[in-house]
Amino acid sequence: MTRKIKLATIERKVRLLNDLTGNPVKPWYELRRGQYVAQVGCYHLKRVGGGMVLKRIIDDQGKAEGVFSLMETPRPKETLWLMIEAYMNGYEAGKAAGVSDD
After folding, report:
1. Reading across the β-sheet that carries 64-66, which strands appear in turn?
2. H or E element in which residue 66 lies
3. SS in 3 state form for 20-57?
4. Is 66 in contact with 43 (CB distance < 8 Å)?
5. pLDDT tens-digit profile of 21-78?
6. Residue 84: enclosing H or E segment and its boundaries?
7. Per-domain boundaries in the chain
8. Which helix (H) or strand (E) holds 8?
9. Is the whole-model pTM more than 0.85?
10. How far does CA 83 lie from the centroid of its chain?
């Protein structure tokens, strides 16, 4: 039986991923009223078509790329949750093995 995953559950997982990797939790920071700066490195969700993708901001202008592929292939929430979990497990295993994330 497949477990139904809610959006809030995936959002919590993305916050944990940002904490794990030492990245900002919010994709944009407000400098002054109406003036925002992109938070480079921040992982965030984006709705695409009938699903969601995990993106990561790669420059200070807010350009983002898909984490699991350069193509934005929308995933059902359950699949995306499992993919993020696997990504986090791989990140932690790499850290434990002394692999740099640079």
Report:
1. 43-48, 51-57, 64-66
2. strand 64-66
3. HHCCCCCCEEEEECCEEEECCCCEEEEEECCEEEEEEE
4. no
5. 999 999 999 888 989 999 999 999 998 888 899 999 999 899 999 998 766 788 889 9
6. helix 77-96
7. 7-92
8. helix 7-21
9. yes
10. 11
